[in-house]
Amino acid sequence: MKFTLLLSLLVITANVSGFDQRYTTYHHLLAQYVYGGGVAYEKVAQNRDLISQISSEFESVTKEEFMSWDEKEQISFLINSYNFYTIHLIAENLPLKNGVRDISHPWKKEFVPFLGDTVSLDYVEHDFLRVHYREPRIHFALVCAAIGCPELLDKPFLATELDEMLHHAGLLFLNDTSKNRVEKRVMYLSKIFEWYGDDFKWTHEGGYKEYIREVLQLENRDYRVRFLDYDWGLNSAKGEK
Predict the structure, then answer these.
(1) Cα separation of 135 and 112, whole Å?
(2) Which one in 15, 107, 113, 240 has a CA-CA gap of 20 to 30 Å to 127?
(3) Where along the chain do its domains lie?
(4) At a CB cut-off of 8 Å and minimum separation 6, what does 8 contact?
């Protein structure tokens, strides 16, 4: 009860002074329901008040306010918005037999409030994030509710820690041997690198292989690449927190 009251006071204070760049309410959702390698979607679906409150906060951001932020604040907002509305989408469509693709055109569905408009998850990722910012590490932060995705962190991305958090997310993803591994002269990689590998040329001349060599501190040799099958199963939380 005391925590809920404190949370409400923090949100009210943030709303008076502008959008809460600490994402206090969204952090509360992540801390409660993200564990065991995934999201406890059934429990999220039962907490409609929290979902509604977070959605209202994201929806309150105007185009003018967004444009007044610096680049890291904008990127953090877009990542957090994408991930929250993905959780929202799954919670609203339970039960799912196989995963997110049971929903008709989930990434093209226009339901995401965005700067006074209503857009799709694809728009947030492909028509905004990838168009306006040269930050390939977003692909380790955006989570489309599939097991093959990077794991969703149990805290929001913050502008004040964005570089560190994106680096950490990349390390977690590359060190997850169910999704990426290096054996001798072969990189067995997630299809995320097949789909979006060219984005890494924005920051690494050699592209994604150069990025992986740098992050994992591999020998500077030419590696062959094989892309692994992508697991589209739902990234549901395992066990109890």
Answers:
(1) 22
(2) 15
(3) 2-158
(4) none
Residue whose token pair is 């927190």: 241
CA 225 distance to own-chain centroid: 25
User: At 213, is the secondary structure helix, strand, or coil?
Assistant: helix
What's 127's DSSP letter?
A: I
The pTM of the full predicted model, rounded to 2 decimals, is: 0.92
pLDDT digits (tens, 9 = 90+) for 58-92: 999 999 999 999 999 999 999 999 999 999 999 99
SS3 241: coil
| Cβ contact 180:188 at 8 Å | yes
Beta bridge partners of 117: 114
In contact, 100 and 94? CB cutoff 8 Å? no
**Amino acid letter for position 232:** W
Closest to 172 in 3D by CA, of 153, 155, 196 = 153
**Residue owning tokens 């989930």:** 106
